[in-house]
Amino acid sequence: QLAFVVTCISPNHKANNKGVKNYLYKDNGVNIVVLRSKGKNLLKRLTSMLLYLIFAIRNLNKGDIVIIYNYFPEYLLACVYLKLFGIRCVLDIEDGPRFADYAVRELLTRCMYPLIKHLCEKRYLIVSKELADQLKLSTVLPVYGVSMHCSSNIETSKFSKYPIQILYGGTINEERGLYIFINAVNELVNKSNIEIEFNVTGSFPIIEMQDLKTLCQKTNGRVRLNLYGELKSADYRNILNVSDVGLNLRLANREMGATTFP
After folding, report:
1. CA 71, CA 89: separation in Å to the nearest integer?
2. CA-CA to 93 of 20 to 30 Å: which in 20, 67, 143, 221?
């Protein structure tokens, strides 16, 4: 069956960002659609809501399967249309509702969760079993990580050669363990004799990471820090395949720690 995956532009994208355009591409036969929104704040949400509805009316038919990423308010009208016309819609939950966050945007998004959940299939894609347990969802498919091309089994060859390869990726900030990582690397630089190579991908504060890299360079290669930033899928998989371990350092006492891997 034809499957449309409709993804929502992050609220962090600027409306005048010319690099973000409407586009469609295929991944293993699945059509992935990105619709660019216009305007700012409330106007941006309203135009996005209309864009998704217009796209659904023009392009989707009974027999298609739609997967939506999280439960943004922008999806509401499109989800109502899909429900009315019997087009199956699956909710992919990558972040749980942030119940302790009272910002207007988070309150609105949190209110959308039960509405959009009701309009979708009663089975869900979800980022982790722990989040499914927290949200009391029983029929779920946890999808760990972004690459399904790597074995889920732990290889016995891992940790058998040096330097040990450690991957730290995603959006890296204080709430996601930035200073835990910096302190740990400092500790290794000063007190450890083990050869370790850190590969940092995604987005991170440049100044702090460059200072840390300078510190690592004083160890003559014993502790290495590679700063890759955003990578293409193939390049990321290459790093993933040689990694002995990946780090997830979300702070347990912060709200972000409860939304993805509680």
Report:
1. 12
2. 20
